[in-house]
Amino acid sequence: MSIRRSKETGNMCAQCDDCFDVVDFEDGDDFDTAKTMIDVDGWKTTKRDGKWVNICPDCKK
Asked: Looking at residue 9, what DSSP letter applies?
């Protein structure tokens, strides 16, 4: 699902492409901030079938 702006809150969010867990970010956080934060939290970003996917730390195991 990648990193996107939530339709519900208007804030950035990231969703795991395996388990669909969602992380919501604070007001004013942009794409770069969200990407940095999921990287620090141990998420993996990779290409799968030509599309970028984000995998949370629990699904990386």
From this structure: T
Q: What's the pTM?
A: 0.83
CA distance 37 to 50: 24
Band (pLDDT 50/70/90 cuts) for residue 1 is low
Contact criterion met (CB below 8 Å) for 5 and 24: no
Going from the C-alpha of 50 to that of each of 32, 35, 42, 47, the distances in angstroms are: 21, 19, 22, 6
Let me know: does 24 contact 11? Beta carbons within 8 Å.
Answer: yes
pLDDT in tens, 22-44: 999 999 999 999 999 999 999 99
Backbone angles phi, psi at 22, to 5 degrees: -115, 135
**Which segments of the chain does DSSP mark as H helices, in order?**
31-40, 57-60
